[in-house]
Every structure is written in C-alpha cells, then in structure tokens.
Amino acid sequence: MVAYNVPTVNDVLVPETLLKKQKSDAKAVETLAAKKAELRKAKISKRREIFKRAKNYDAEYKANEKNEIRLRRQAKALGNYYVPAQEKLVFVIRIRGINNIAPKPRKVLTLLRLLQINNGVFVRLNKATSEMLQLIQPYVTYGYPNQKTIRELIYKRGYGKVNKSRIPLYDNSIVEQALGKYNIICIEDLIHEIATVGPHFKEASNFLWPFKLSNPNNMWRERKFLNYVEGGDAGNRENFINNLVQAMN
Fold first, then answer.
1. Are 153 and 245 in contact (CB under 8 A)?
2. CB atoms < 10 A from the CB of 71, how many?
3. Which residues, in sequence order, are CB contacts of 148 under 8 Å at separation 6+?
4. What is the pTM of this model?
5. E strand or H helix at 159, and its extent?
6. C-alpha angle with apex 183: 155 to 57, nearest 5 degrees?
7. In this predicted model, what pLDDT tens digit does every residue of 209-246 receive, in sequence order?
8. How far apart are CA 44 and CA 37, in angstroms?
9. Which of 2, 207, 213, 222 has a 20 to 30 A CA-CA distance from 176?
10. What DSSP line would sit under 94-154, residue for residue?
C-alpha cells in the first residue's frame, strides 16, 4: 500500500485573491471602527456644547427676570411707574374659517401661513406686522407669549419644514441640518432665537411649520367673533394668550 501524508497548514498555499480579500476586509473593519470612534467622540462633544448653551440660556432668562423685578421695585421705591419695553413677539391663532373674507385679509392670512382654523404662528411685532394684524383682527386672536408657552409649543407640537415636508422635531440633527449655518444647532437654540427675536428670527420662524392646535375646552366665549375687550375672542388679548395656548396645546 502507498502511504499518503496529510498536508499541514504550512504546506497548503493560500490563493492570492483570498489573501487580498482578507487584507481588504481587515482594512475595512479598521476603517469602520475608527469612523465609529470619531463619530462617538463628535457626538459627545456636541452634546456637551448643547448642555452648555442650554445652561447659558437659562442663566440669561433668570438674569432678565431678576432685572425686571429690580426695575419695578426701584420705580416703586422712588414713587414712579415702571413701563416695560414694548413687546417684540406675538403668537397669532386663526379662529375663523374661509367664509365671507375680503381679498385683503385673505391675502394677509396667506402671507402669515394661517391657512386653517386653530393654526398658530410666531410673528415679529413691528410697524408692518401691526398694520397686517389690524387688517385680520376679526379672524384671529393674538398676544404676547411667555417663555413657558414658547417652550411647550415647540417641544410638544413643533414640526420643521425640511425639503417642503412637515417633519417632527424628534432630534437636534434636524434643526442643525436646516439652521446650522445660522449657528442654531439644537431645539434650545431655536427656542432662544424665537423668544428673544434674534437676528435670524425670520429663518427660524419660517423653518417652523404652522402649529396645529386643538379646540380649547370651554374657552371660547358666547360671541366668539367680537373683539376680546367687548366680550369676544378676536383681537389682541396680550398676556392672556398664554392661558388660551395652554388650553389648546
């Protein structure tokens, strides 16, 4: 009988193509691991930056509030009246449908993106927008939102306009993708830009899709379309807009 020897591992030659594939696979694994480590590092760094910004904004809001209280007390101690600065921001809600609307108010409602009942938008208050609000006063109610109202609206009902689509704001990356070039990289930046009516308010406001609010329970008055000061709901309700928004949010 002829004896056959079983070849060892060293005796078997590995094909060149298999060697190349093993090398390329090993290199791909290393590259992927390095990329994952880099992404994780960048994510941690960005998260720290976002926390830092949120902390600074919170300190700024508290400082402004304390300064307001100090000025009121100072004016009272001197026997004067404290007159706060003119409001720069209003939140406008449409309360009336499309029937019997004149062309001008209809055009203004379209410009403000108030296309449906219970739609709401943030508007910078200036001479032009004040005149526009006068034109559409019978069809909307508006007022001055506080910090709490702005935050709750954006966190609960905030949608962004991305490629002309309505996308929920479930991640900071959506905000950064659309507004990163304006140094707005997270939801807190967006809230700060809206609340303080910053230099990029227009871009931030246009990025936010008009808020779709619910009907408030037992909040509308009997004569809804009268002015607010006459016992209705239309027109300027100043700080009382916050109560209405909380009921509709």
1. yes
2. 13
3. 242
4. 0.81
5. strand 159-162
6. 55
7. 999 999 888 778 777 788 888 888 888 998 999 999 99
8. 11
9. 213
10. E-S-STT--HHHHHHHHHTT--STTEEEEEE-SHHHHHHHHHTGGGEEEE---HHHHHHHH
